[in-house]
Design goal:
With about 120 residues, the protein is mainly beta. It has no helices and eleven strands.
Length: about 120
């Protein structure tokens, strides 16, 4: 079964840091991108960051300079999101996303909760 599993969420105070992890398992072939989205209560899911198979990264303006997306071994289908200088508006459920295969199939993880208190 192909799946993404996130971990690393939790509760933190303003200015704190968290590192999220996303591990893909199963037959994930020809990975194009891995990225992170988030959904705050009562809001739509929004894109946060992306890492391409070529190593290019991109970030939403709201997290640029504070968050870093990276992998230590792309072959293991693992991506991390280092979140620094967290703000209450960063609160939400964070979802890992992967686009893979010749059909550009999209995978989602189950989400991990991040809560930043002031």
């Amino acid at each position: 079964q192909v799946q993404l599993v996130e971990s690393g969420g939790g509760d933190v105070q303003t200015g704190g840091s968290l590192r999220l992890s996303c591990v893909g398992s199963g037959s994930i072939s020809s990975l194009h991108t891995m990225g992170w989205y988030r959904q705050a209560p009562g809001k739509q899911r929004e894109w946060v960051a992306v890492l391409t198979s070529g190593g290019t990264t991109n970030y939403s303006d709201s997290v640029k300079g504070r968050f870093t997306i990276f992998t230590v071994n792309a072959a293991k289908n693992t991506v991390f999101l280092q979140m620094n200088s967290l703000k209450p508006e960063d609160t939400g459920v964070y979802y890992c996303n992967a686009v893979h295969g010749w059909q550009s199939s999209v995978l989602w993880g189950q989400g991990t909760q991040v809560t930043v208190s002031s």
